[in-house]
C-alpha cells in the first residue's frame, strides 16, 4: 500500500472534524447564554432603578432647597410696623392640635415626630407703600386622608392706613382657621408637594430658643412689632425645619386608599424623608 493511499479516510467513516455538535453540547451552550443574558438584564435593571432613585432624590433636594431659599428671602423682609401699630402681626405660625405623626427611627427607641405648621408674615410692597401679607397653608383634607400635604401660597395687599384694622382682621381669621387653602384653594398656588414636616423655632439675640405659645388651636409663634407674644422676648432668628417624602414613596402613598395602611406604611419609612434646616434672620429695625 502506498503512503498516499494509507492517509485517505476509509469510505463510509467520516472523520472527527466533520462531525457536528451533539444535542447535549447545544443545550449546554444555550443554558450558558441564557444565564449570561439574564445576568446582564438584571444588572441593567438594577442600574436603571438606581439611576431613577438618584434622580428622584436629586429632585427632592433641589425642591427643598428652592423652597427654603424662597422662604428665606421673604422672611428677611418682614416689616417693623410704625409706632402705634401694636395689634398687627409681623409673623405668625400655628400647628393645629393633633396635626402630628410619628415615624420609627432604625436603631433608636425614640420615634421622630413630624408636625405641620401653617404660617403668615407681613412685608412691604416694593411697588408702593402698602402692606403685603403672605400666607403659606395646606389642605386639611390632604393630611387627614393621606398624612402628606402640599404647601400652598397666597398673598393679599392692604393700604398703609389699614395696618391695625383690616390687616389684623385677616390675620386673625387665618389663625382661627377660617381662611386657608382648604376653602380657598383657587386663591392659592401650590409650591411644594410631599411635605410631612414643617416646623418653626424662634431664637433670641443670645441664641436661646423662645418657646411657642400654647393656644386653643395648638402651638404657634406670634411676633408683634417688637416681641414674641406671651414671652416678651425679641426674636433674632427663625429656624425652619422641613421634611419631604421621597417621590417613589409619595406615589405609593397616593395609591393606597386605607388611612390605617398609609399610617403604617409611612411610619416605617423615616429613611425616605429628606430633612432640611435653615435659620433666617428677623429684622429688628425699620
Give structural notes.
- The protein is α+β, with helices and mostly antiparallel strands.
- Helices cover 32% and strands 30% of the residues.
- It is elongated.
- The chain starts with a helix and ends in a 5-residue tail after the last strand.
- The model has no long low-confidence stretch (mean pLDDT 83).
N-end to C-end Cα span: 122 Å
Overall average residue pLDDT: 83
Which value, in Å, is the CA radius of gyration?
A: 32 Å
Largest sheet: 10 strands, antiparallel
Secondary structure class reads alpha+beta
Helix content: 25-40%
Helix count, DSSP H or I runs of 4 or more residues:
6
Tally the beta strands.
Answer: 12
SSE layout and pairings?
Layout: H1 3-6, H2 23-75, E1 91-96, E2 100-103, E3 112-115, E4 118-124, E5 131-137, H3 140-146, E6 149-158, H4 166-175, E7 189-204, E8 209-210, E9 213-215, E10 218-223, E11 235-245, H5 247-255, H6 259-267, E12 273-281
Antiparallel strand pairs: 1-4, 1-10, 2-3, 4-5, 5-6, 6-7, 7-8, 7-11, 9-10, 11-12
Question: Descriptors for this entry?
Answer:
alpha+beta, ten-stranded antiparallel sheet, single chain, two-stranded antiparallel ribbon, 286 residues
Gist?
The chain is of the alpha+beta class.
Amino acid at each position: 500500500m502506498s503512503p498516499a493511499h494509507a492517509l485517505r479516510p476509509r469510505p463510509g467513516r467520516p472523520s472527527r472534524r466533520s462531525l457536528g455538535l451533539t444535542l447535549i453540547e447545544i443545550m449546554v451552550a444555550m443554558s450558558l447564554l441564557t444565564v449570561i443574558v439574564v445576568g446582564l438584564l438584571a444588572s441593567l435593571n438594577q442600574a436603571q432603578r438606581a439611576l431613577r432613585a438618584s434622580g428622584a432624590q436629586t429632585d427632592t433636594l433641589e425642591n427643598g432647597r428652592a423652597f427654603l431659599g424662597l422662604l428665606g428671602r421673604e422672611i428677611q423682609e418682614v416689616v417693623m410696623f410704625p409706632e402705634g401699630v401694636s395689634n398687627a402681626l409681623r409673623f405668625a405660625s400655628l400647628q393645629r392640635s393633633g396635626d402630628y405623626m410619628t415615624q420609627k427611627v432604625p436603631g433608636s427607641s425614640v420615634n421622630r415626630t413630624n408636625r405641620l405648621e401653617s404660617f403668615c408674615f407681613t412685608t412691604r410692597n416694593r411697588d408702593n407703600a402698602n402692606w403685603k401679607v403672605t400666607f403659606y397653608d395646606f389642605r386639611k383634607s390632604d393630611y387627614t386622608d393621606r398624612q402628606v400635604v402640599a404647601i400652598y401660597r397666597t398673598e393679599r395687599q392692604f393700604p398703609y392706613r389699614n395696618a391695625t384694622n383690616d390687616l389684623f382682621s385677616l390675620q386673625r381669621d387665618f389663625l382661627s382657621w377660617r381662611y386657608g387653602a382648604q376653602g380657598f384653594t383657587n386663591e392659592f398656588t401650590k409650591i411644594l408637594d410631599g411635605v410631612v414636616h414643617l416646623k418653626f423655632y424662634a431664637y433670641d439675640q443670645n441664641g436661646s430658643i423662645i418657646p411657642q405659645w400654647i393656644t386653643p388651636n395648638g402651638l404657634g409663634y406670634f411676633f408683634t412689632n417688637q416681641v414674641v407674644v406671651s414671652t416678651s422676648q425679641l426674636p433674632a432668628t427663625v429656624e425652619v425645619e422641613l421634611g419631604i417624602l421621597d417621590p417613589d414613596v409619595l406615589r405609593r402613598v397616593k395609591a393606597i386608599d386605607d388611612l390605617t395602611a398609609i399610617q403604617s406604611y409611612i411610619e416605617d419609612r423615616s429613611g425616605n424623608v429628606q430633612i432640611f434646616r435653615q435659620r433666617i434672620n428677623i429684622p429688628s429695625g425699620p
